[in-house]
Amino acid sequence: MADDFDFGASTGQTPLANGADTSPAAGLISQYIKDLSFENPNAPAVYQNQNAPAVDVQFNIGGSQVGDEVHELILKIEVRAESDGKVAFIVDLSYAGLFGFRNVPADQIQPFLLTEGPRLLFPFARRVLADAVRDGGFPPLLLEPIDFNALYMQSQDAQSGQTSGTMGQA
Prior knowledge:
By secondary structure, the chain is of the alpha+beta class. The protein has one domain (23-143): Bacterial Protein-export protein SecB. The protein has helices spanning 106-135, 148-169; strands spanning 25-39, 54-65, 70-83, 86-102. The chain has a 4-stranded antiparallel sheet with strand order 1-4-3-2. The longest helix has 30 residues, at 106-135. The chain starts with 24 loop residues before the first strand and ends with a helix. This is Protein-export protein SecB. Homotetramer, a dimer of dimers. One homotetramer interacts with 1 SecA dimer. Its main location: cytoplasm. It is found in: Cytoplasm.
């Protein structure tokens, strides 16, 4: 019967004799709108324009440690739509999540926060943004899904290229 229980041997993580859990764990504790702003500076004239606005979307990911094993991640999305040289609408959304970590090596937290964190938050931020634009009198703005893992890998490649390039010039 004892062979039926693995006790983490296959993962290399075994419980301590005192019952303490030593396996790494990461999870989303809470998510929330930290800041939301919708501007419609040219209403009502903007609704008489039949041209579709040109939309510019900018993303930024930031975060900070807010507790011993808790980090806040903020996904900031800025949208500016213009039509015929006039602003149709501007939306600024800061959507945040609290992530808890237990037994996770420090060097693995940032990669998680820059890949998995935004991947978990983005669908909810996308909905908030679409609703705000729709409630402002425009068709909902549905953002395409983003591969945050690929973006992280690109940024790591760019940083390693700059580091090796700098070292090569010395």
